[in-house]
Amino acid sequence: MGKKTSNPGKIHLRIVEVMKRFPEGITAGQIRQELEREGLRPEDQTHLDRRKRDLKKWFLIEKGTAEQIVESKKRKVVVYKYRGDKQGITDEGQINQKLRAEVIHAAHGRCQMCGKTIEKHGITLVVDHKKPRDWGGTNDRNNLWAICEECNAGKKAYFASLNVDADTMRRVTAHESVHVRIGELLKAVGVGKRTPSSLLEVVADQDDWQKRLRELRYSVIGWKVETILYKGSSGKKQADYVLKSFKPWPADPTATIRQFERDRERLNREPQD
Predict the structure, then answer these.
(1) Which of 22, 134, 219, 220 is deepest in the core (most CB within 10 A)?
(2) Sorting pLDDT into bands at 50, 70 and 90, what band is 7?
(3) Does 46 lie in the same domain as 15?
(4) Residue 264 shares a structural domain with residue 182
């Protein structure tokens, strides 16, 4: 049975039309006010917040902060920005509460991206899709993790900043070869640009993805990839990778790499004259 496809309702579409009029961002309260001016009925206001949350199923909605004058005082407020429509989205349904609780519990109070903790840093954890839904990500347990709200917002902003669209990323993640998935992601981000390890881990979908990345530097592949190490805001060691140059893929990159390793191992075992 195929996945069920859902469509936005009339209220969802009205919210999006309001957002489009405020490209600099609009608060939830302002959305409600605008819809009330347009004659939104009281019975439709009851579930307005839920309908706003539902928008991410079909639209690219960026959540950020801005300074506004509230009651004669300058304050930071949460604003929402419409960034476009998603393509090829299917609706798997919401993550059920049991699975959500399991993901949060497994994090042991620590953001699984930056390493900050609830106890020490006062963060709030949210359940997030490692591979975004519009890149082909699912609600499977292995595609979910608990990260802090700051990392969640930063991750979304980074994905939005990539010079690639969702179709490109679905093609990248669909390759059978882990080497090609990693390499095509580096190419998609761009030569000379930093790709964070968290994003590479998502696309590689393997625990030993760092070794697969190092193998791209073998002479039979011939790619040049620079590693940049740094400490994140929590003090945790992190790494970004920068593609410096690349060559066309051989017919079967993974098989080529494995044969190179076998030949190297055989040469190392041979007695030296």
Answers:
(1) 134
(2) confident
(3) yes
(4) yes
Q: Pull the structure tokens for residue 80.
A: 């929402």
End-to-end Cα, the chain, rounded Å: 65
Q: In terms of domains, do 173 and 129 share one?
A: no
| Rounded-to-integer distance, Cα 20 and Cα 43, Å | 24
Amino acid at 5: T
Q: What is the CATH number of the domain that holds 102?
A: 1.10.30
Task: Dump pLDDT digits (tens) for 195-244.
Answer: 988 889 888 887 789 999 999 999 999 999 999 999 877 677 889 999 99
Q: What is the tens place of the pLDDT at every residue in 130-177? A: 888 777 788 888 889 999 999 888 887 777 777 667 777 888 888 888
d(CA 22, CA 68): 14
Residue 240 has a pLDDT of 93
Same domain, 3 and 80: yes
What is the extent of the structural domain holding 72? Answer: 1-88
Residues 247/223, Cβ–Cβ less than 8 Å: yes
DSSP string, 186-249: HHHH-TT-EEEHHHHHHHH-STTHHHHHHHTTSTTT--EEEEEEEE-TTS-EEEEEEEEE--PP
User: How far are the Cα atoms of 7, 104, 222 from residue 2, in angstroms, in the given order?
Assistant: 16, 29, 41
Q: What is the tally of structural domains in the chain?
A: 3
Residue 90 reports pLDDT greater than 90: no
Residues 156 and 178 in one domain: no
